[in-house]
Design goal:
The chain has 239 residues and is mainly α. The chain has ten helices and two strands. It has a two-stranded antiparallel sheet with strand order 1-2. A hairpin with a 2-residue loop joins strand 1 and strand 2. The longest helix is centred in the last third of the chain and has 32 residues. It is globular and about 50 Å long. The mean pLDDT is 83.
Length: 239
């Protein structure tokens, strides 16, 4: 445990499993925040805490972790992964970071938004690429700074997702089937019959796509790199 400064604020760093567990499970004593909460969304699962966090987390996990949802996720994502792997084989040599980012974003976009590769996804990808540098940057909202550019990209993403939300409301009034995560978040109800607000749906879509994009692409990239460096491990996986 030691004291330092992060994002201009005095901070205490802890790293042992026992202390980390104590902090993460003590919602009443420790308020969990992102320094750039506006980029993630003020009502997103990563920004709210306490009862509000539990409520949103339950909505999201219910939309994703139910058996029928997991089966649908596998059916949606698998063809994209197989297609990507075959294309890499045809290319012979690839840039792992670029290709895993592309594969991850296309799979997540299909799962979360039901969108196929094309101009729409390319524009979303560019906006998310603009948001990424601002997530861990100093929150200085002045032109020329990463945070300012990230905020502008985030507002454009929000506008796009609100338009998509309105479009689905007008088309899906009588539809009960859940097509993707956005549909799931729009339709899911808690025990009292309440649904997420439009802002909660949009904020969580923005943050979940961003979080899934970063984590999935990095894990995939390092898995490919390490398997290439250790062919004996790859052979064991194939058995």
């Amino acid at each position: 445990m030691f004291r330092t400064h992060l994002f201009g604020e005095p901070s205490i760093i802890v790293y042992t499993p026992a202390v980390n567990k104590f902090v993460l499970f003590s919602d009443t004593n420790f308020k969990q925040e992102w320094p750039t909460v506006e980029l993630m969304g003020v009502t997103s699962m990563v920004a709210v805490h306490g009862k509000a966090h539990t409520r949103v987390r339950n909505f999201v996990t219910n939309a994703i972790n139910r058996p029928d949802a997991l089966s649908r996720i596998a059916a949606l994502v698998q063809p994209h992964i197989v297609t990507a792997l075959r294309s890499w084989d045809d290319m012979g040599k690839i840039k792992a970071k670029v290709e895993t980012q592309k594969m991850s974003f296309e799979s997540i976009a299909k799962l979360f938004l039901g969108k196929e590769p094309g101009d729409f996804l390319n524009s979303l990808d560019k906006l998310y690429q603009g948001v990424l540098p601002g997530v861990r940057a100093y929150p200085i909202n002045v032109p020329g700074f990463a945070y300012h550019h990230a905020l502008r990209c985030r507002r454009k993403l929000e506008k796009i997702f609100y338009m998509e939300l309105d479009k689905r409301k007008s088309k899906n009034e009588n539809m009960v089937e859940t097509i993707d995560l956005m549909d799931g978040l729009m339709q899911i109800e808690d025990d009292e019959g309440d649904k997420l607000s439009d802002k909660e749906v949009v904020d969580n879509i923005v943050s979940l796509v961003l979080g899934g994009y970063i984590s999935t692409s990095l894990v995939s990239m390092w898995a490919i790199y390490l398997l290439a460096k250790h062919p004996n491990v790859l052979e064991k996986l194939r058995v």
